Amino acid sequence: MQRVCFLLKVRADRLDEYRARHAVVWPEMLDALTAAGWHNYSLFLREDGLLVGYLETEDFAAAQARMAATDVNARWQKEMAPFFESLEGARPDEAMRPLTEVFHLA
Fold it and tell me: Which residues form the signal peptide (predicted)?
């Protein structure tokens, strides 16, 4: 199982709305993530907007590709894009760059 951690930056003026949206993630989005192989997926948000994502999957590139092929993901990413800083024209899911794991306590 591959462990993946990534960082994004949520706009300071959108933090409350970002939290509210994630309190009621669309059921079809949750189903798509599970079907695409995203497991143990968590998002952590710091007060300055730093967003830390963590998930486990067999193959991150394949899991991303499966999500990219779904209509629900396209709709979700379009709605979420305005919440983020520095996407440089990419969708939020395309801007996720995994961090290099340097330690893991098994």
Answer: none
